[in-house]
From TrEMBL:
One of its GO terms (biological process) is carbohydrate metabolic process. Residues 363-386 form the Glucose-methanol-choline oxidoreductase N-terminal domain. It comes from the Eukaryota. The lineage of its organism: Eukaryota, Fungi, Dikarya, Ascomycota, Pezizomycotina. It comes from Diplogelasinospora grovesii. One of its GO terms (molecular function) is flavin adenine dinucleotide binding. Coiled coil: none annotated. Keywords: FAD, Flavoprotein, Signal. GO terms for cellular component: extracellular region. This is Cellobiose dehydrogenase. Residues 247-267 are annotated as: Disordered. Residues 1-23 form the signal peptide. PANTHER family: CELLOBIOSE DEHYDROGENASE (AFU_ORTHOLOGUE AFUA_2G17620), DEHYDROGENASE, PUTATIVE-RELATED.
Amino acid sequence: MSLLKRIGATIAAASLCVQGCAAQMVTQPYVDPVSGIVFNSTWVTGPGSDPESASVATYGFGMVLPPDAFIKDANEYIGLLRCAITNDTADASQGWCGLSHGVSGQMTQSLLLMAWPYNGSVYTSFRYTSGYNLPGVYTGNATLTQISSTINATQFELVYRCQGCFSWNQGGSAGSVSTTSKLFIMGRAAAKKGVHNPTCPDKVFFGFHDNGYGQYGAPLDNATHTSYPYWAAKATKTAATNCATLETPPPTTTATGTQPTDTSVPTTTAAAQCTPAPAKSYDYIVVGAGAAGIPIADKLSQAGKSVLLIEKGPPSSGRWNGTMKPAWLQGTNLTRFDVPGLCNEIWVDSTGIACTDTDQMAGCVLGGGTAVNAGLWWKPNPKDWDYNFPYGWKSSDLAGATKRVFDRIPGTWHPSMDGQLYRQEGFNVLQSGLNQSGWKQVIPNDSPNQKNRTFGHTTFMYSGGERGGPMATYLVTAYARKQFTLMTNTAVRRAIRVGGHVTGVELECLSSGYSGVVNVTANTGRVIFAAGTFGSAKLLLRSGIGPADQLQVIQSSADGSTFLPQNQWIDLPVGYNLMDHLNTDLIITHPDVVFYDFYAAWNTPPEGDKDAYLKNRTGILAQAAPNIGPMMWDEIKASDGIVRQLQWTSRVEGNDQVTPSKNAMTLSQYLGRGVVSRGRMTITNTLETQVFLHPYLHDDFDKEAVIQGIKNMQAALNVIPNLTWVLPPPGTTVENFVNNMIVSPSNRRANHWMGTAKLGYDDGRSGGSAVVDVNTKVYGTDNLFVVDASIFPGMPTGNPSGMIVIATEQASQRILNLSAPAAVGYGKQCGGKTWGGSYACEDPYVCTYVNISYSVCLSPDAT
Ligand SMILES: Cc1cc2nc3c(=O)[nH]c(=O)nc-3n(C[C@H](O)[C@H](O)[C@H](O)COP(=O)(O)OP(=O)(O)OC[C@H]3O[C@@H](n4cnc5c(N)ncnc54)[C@H](O)[C@@H]3O)c2cc1C
Ligand code: HEM
């Protein structure tokens, strides 16, 4: 049931994508000369895509389906996969390419097929990954048998039969696509570097797809064929494997920092070995050391409380003994996370950094999102509080918290230590048009309320030419206190809860950290989940708090045997209210725009830039990749009367799927405050979180605002001489452009996920929408809190980390001001569906469930 809903949502969106996708993919019929198979439907990367292989399309795919595939869902097809061979490396195996069978062509949580040529044969491997990490071997039932393969100097081609390929199941994590829908959204990926161990498909290891990737709509109308059974019978071959001598994957850069130039290797998976956690209790246990977890741990320890901060990931910044870095940073105290110009590497090599238990990109390292993000740092538009948040959380209430945060992390719009801005050609081009069109230039954090027809330089949380942010401020002061303890590489499984009272957390041994149980101080101790929008929601669910359908999923998972009994479940709308900025990209080119290759700077930054950065923290590497700015803001009042806030983030970077130009800029429109559309996050029975319903464009007036915003931007920039629009393509109306674009997280996300544990007065246990009250305390508990992006009721104007830290400052005060409910005595009420009092019983009594509305303190032997 849940699966069908997910597919339904995707297909509804996908049915709009067909023409838009055609702009990037050429569709053409093809008869395979070797097998004679007629592929009436093929999709080939189009002109402008992947320019470095311009003479040969980097990717081509064709599909034939069984004749009855539109009447009943087929689970097999005949495929044609054709990919360019790249001879630009010393690799004998000349690149790889692959495809995603997923519902929205996504890489995560879907069946992947990869192929590569070697010594006259084409080898294949089915792969699967739950997060944006190196995909492992698929363990389900897909089978590939070859019909024919050809390899020449420029490309390789495989015609194959793929059985069990439209539904997949990786250890219980299942998905499928439906041929009766007559439309697929496919994903493609290609890499220039080859695989290691090419003749042993289960043991190959490989790097990022650096030769193009993306999604396209694949209408299946012509894909069935009556000759299917005849052609399928030709599938008899397999490539001869040889696993005799194997290369051992060296430890990854991310694990040790010793292989700085090779990003093509997976983390060696040693068996997890944890140390039992010290038998000590804490006033506060904070779970997750990200944008919220670090500041709140600091504030609570500053108040004299003993605080344990538990982070699942490894250290990131050099300041905290992080080690992941390219060669040119060896011998320095800097890691990839510290250098602003390397921040985009997260989109190239995310293995060992991205969370592995969610289908979206999230940083599972010390610092969380603030370690991997681009550092954009905004003093909030007061309307973001006033419109989205309830009484007690208005901008006037948050003024003190805002000041405290910006006193510690002021941010800067000129991060290079010489105060200069580098490679400003792109900024200058857009600025000229915006000025002429009457948009006003502002210093954004000096005028946070000026967000209508304004623009300015980007502001970052950077300091001293390095990343800075919470890890360089709040964590430093917290760490200096004896009552503060930090555990890294240590994952929390769940809160240990008796009725509405939490006694501690149970750890889960995933790598090398601690295991066992850690308690909070008896009666007065508290647990705070700060594990992010997906992480905190997952922890709540595993702690028996959430909608019944999700708790049933947990019950059927590996957690089942130790999961709380149903009469202990707290019914709250965890996972609903999922939000993200809808991202709609426009692309322009202008001859004056100059591209700086931040990607190449990972291995080989220009000497002058490297020296300037290493010696003085000056130059372009002190600025965020990929040269971000200008930022622009616009407000649109849609026909429903709601004003929607738009933020535009420009960057000097095109998209090789649509233009080969090196003078391109991408203008990303974020739909912010006022957005009505919401999605839902759910969990699988393999305990991975997923965007079950994306939060984009379910509301017609949201779409109206997006369209109007694009028209406004076109009007503002059309005055610039020699500016060319790539997206929307010339001759396409904005309406058609927007309507034809795929709507899926993979191509429309902004990575600003929020809202799964909404803050509010309307108690979710009684039909309301809130999971936490205005003190950030989880309804139905007296000492469990959530403080992070998940509590946001609505979307803010822009990148949210500044607001998350402010909300955290505010929450810390509210939590500290909240006196712990006294434990109650024998015979007193200690729980019930809408109970709001103390859930703790005096010693030796135990809170005992009587019925859904009533629990009572009784002697232990009475329970
Ligand atoms: C690639 C990317 C770029 C971004 N760019 C920007 C930007 O430029 N500016 C901006 O303002 N925002 C940006 N964002 C968004 C911003 O970083 C996030 O909104 C913010 O970090 C969320 O804060 P959080 O505290 O809710 O969660 P996070 O910062 O994600 O922190 C959660 C932490 O909890 C840990 N954790 C999770 N589960 C457990 C567990 N079970 N046990 C122990 N620890 C756990 C995680 O490892 C993580 O460290 C970006 C996000 C991404 C992914
Ligand atoms: C080392 C291995 C890999 C890594 C680290 C990796 C990482 C990533 C990342 C970070 C993205 C998101 C990029 C963005 O949004 O800008 C992505 C997208 C994608 N990847 Fe991979 N990938 C790997 C291997 C593969 C393989 C083997 C396939 C298919 C056979 C694949 C298919 C895709 C597709 C289709 C997309 C676009 C859709 C989406 O974002 O989900 N990837 N990959």
